[in-house]
Amino acid sequence: MAFVAVEGIDGSGKSTVIQLLAKLLPKVYVTKEPSDGPVGRLIKEWALKGGSVDPHVDALLFAADRIEHYKREVEPKIREGYLVISERYVESSIAYQGAAGVPIDFIKYINKLVPRPDLTVILDVDPEVAEARIRRRGHVEKYEYVQFLRRVREIYLTRAAEEGHPVVDASRSPEEVAADVAEIIHRSVIEPRGRQSLG
Ligand SMILES: Nc1ncnc2c1ncn2[C@@H]1O[C@H](COP(=O)(O)OP(=O)(O)OP(=O)(O)O)[C@@H](O)[C@H]1O
Ligand SMILES: Cc1cn([C@H]2C[C@H](O)[C@@H](COP(=O)(O)O)O2)c(=O)[nH]c1=O
């Protein structure tokens, strides 16, 4: 049916909001990156645990995982008529690997083999709020510190302005954030398709 990416810095509440979206919208299939495929597992077990020494390696691994994930899981589910919601997609690579120093043109080039989503929504929150949430959650990962997340957020917001991605204030309750995102998905993806099918 359609493909939506939900993006935002670590701790912005993506997983929490996507779980709520699955209850608010019809026929939703939820997935995420890094994926559960072989490259996604390598990323989670090696690259995100400090294994890779160059951010270009991370960028290449995330792009390879994305191609595999899209072909194996996303595309078939869209064909089956699902509204596929992915937690993270190409904008994550642009924001995180861009913040780590990889040129954005290079990131765009290695991600050319996957299509753009029908909609990308950015959950926006102050990195200090995000870091407090992450610390309350318990485990802290590779990119989860305020100075880095500030750079990531800046790239997300610059790209959102350039590409027209909606930005949602994610400092509110999960229910308020999810209601806003559901409304945006309805307005931009579900309703236009309904109109098309009416002719
Ligand atoms: N709107 C919110 N207000 C307060 N706490 C929240 C909110 N959304 C999520 N949380 C809490 O913050 C923590 C991180 O949330 P969540 O895992 O949904 O974020 P995320 O963006 O998916 O993070 P990551 O990218 O690190 O996986 C969790 O403990 C969650 O319960
Ligand atoms: C897809 C993608 C992810 N990342 C980073 C962002 C996060 O810090 C981790 C994933 O962890 P999560 O808590 O499960 O969201 O990976 C990245 O740097 N580049 C990417 O393309």
UniProtKB/TrEMBL annotation:
Provide the GO biological process annotations.
Answer: dTDP biosynthetic process; dTTP biosynthetic process; dUDP biosynthetic process
Q: Which UniProt keywords apply?
A: ATP-binding, Kinase, Nucleotide biosynthesis, Nucleotide-binding, Transferase
Q: Where does ATP bind?
A: 8-15
InterPro entries recorded for this chain?
A: P-loop_NTPase, Thymidylate_kin-like_dom, Thymidylate_kin_CS, Thymidylate_kinase
Pfam families listed in its UniProt record: Thymidylate_kin
HAMAP family found in the cross-reference section: Thymidylate_kinase
User: What family is it from?
Assistant: Belongs to the thymidylate kinase family.
Could you tell me what this protein is called? Probable thymidylate kinase
Tell me the lineage of the source organism.
Archaea, Thermoproteota, Thermoprotei, Thermoproteales, Thermoproteaceae
